[in-house]
Amino acid sequence: MNRKDKLNRIFLVLLSLFVVMLGYGILLPTLPYYTERLALKDNLDTDLINFHIGMLTSIYPLFQLLFVIVWGKLSDKYGRKPIILLGLVGFIVMNLLTGLATSLSMLYMARIIGGIFTSAVIPVSNAYLSDITSEKRRTKIMAWSGVAISSGVIFGPVLGGFLSQTNLHYTYSFGVFHLDRFSVPFILAALLGFVVLLIIIKWLKNTEVKSRIASEVVKFSFSLSNYFIILLLLSFVMQFVVTLFETVFSIYGKDELAFTTNQVGIGFMLCGSVMAVLQPVFATYGKKILTSKQQITLGLLISGVSLIVFPFVSGELYIYVTIIIFAAGGAMVTPNLLSAVSLISKENTGRNISIQSSTNSIGQILGPVLGTWLIAGGFYYPFIIAGVTVLVSMGLVYFLKQQDKEVNQILLADQHKKG
């Protein structure tokens, strides 16, 4: 594969990641307002609105968790491209149903479909990138994957916040569906998804299908070593606190700060922007100053402290600054964890990344549920508990270092035996 062909493939895969995360980002600032509107239409108790916000946020990663390993194994068997295409089709259906929903049950159905099929895009796309890049450049390309994901979270909330407030004096109902100004951002996301689907069909080449390996059980047990488990625990903690923060901040902005969807969207945009800019910077230049493990430790420290401080900050500007600091910490951690997982096994990269994605989904399920439950006691609790959890998880990095030394010793022993 020549350099131009490789760059084209990387661009197309990153494009699919971007559009899926754009759809995810569109819903972030609008979900509390959209849920409230549908709940009132269904004559539900207003005290249950935050409960439904948490459940609607959690049900998406729940179904990602149930299906992600299936997609990973299928992509190892049939190649990455057909699985990515299936994911994009599900993404389009999810956004159409969301935009046309007339009840909470329809919104739940849209989120379930989205969870099932978008779990076929993100981990499989990362596995595709891993397939076509060398180990030396793995961290860098995973950082660019993070840029594509973060870019979707940059533009999604802005589009969602802005387009949901457009003064379109137009409503149209047909059957159980309803089209109005709240539909605009989701219809746009569906159209973008359709365009990307056509582009991927035409220009993205499938990866080479990996042959079945007789020693599958042995390799799977190696992938679940203590080293891998610690990486998964760290991934879980980051996703848990990030989704808890996203869910609680949208409610906090609406109820406590009296933010509009635009102001909430700006907060998510800043978070995504910092992640997009800093992930490749840390991946490219960070190792010249700090090792991967040192970057993970520092990133956890920054994220944990900023979460604890967040509920005590007042003023729109200072709130945004704290969000930026929190995102900077996350930008140090995420690409280093993903790169480490992708390097564990050459033969089972798709499955290992899918296992990590499943772990992330567990964090994404528990974060919103716990966050919305803790809000009942006050907005301070979810932020402080999330921050303390991150700081405690720093202790896992010590064991990661110890396990890394053990792995290196085993590799050296094998080399001596071969010699």
From TrEMBL:
InterPro entries in UniProt: MFS, MFS_dom, MFS_trans_sf, MFS_Transporters, Tet-R_TetA/multi-R_MdtG-like
Keyword Transport among record annotations: yes
Major facilitator superfamily (MFS) profile domain location: 9-405
GO molecular function: transmembrane transporter activity
Signal peptide: none
Gene3D superfamilies associated with the record: MFS general substrate transporter like domains
One cellular component term from this protein's GO annotations in UniProt: plasma membrane
PROSITE patterns: MFS (PS50850)
Membrane topology: Multi-pass membrane protein
Highest taxon, organism lineage: Bacteria
Pfam annotation, one family: MFS_1
Residue ranges of the TM segments: 12-31, 51-71, 83-102, 108-129, 141-162, 182-204, 224-245, 265-284, 381-400
Location (main, coarse): membrane
Annotated compartments: Cell membrane
CDD domains: MFS_MdtG_SLC18_like
Descriptive protein name: MFS transporter
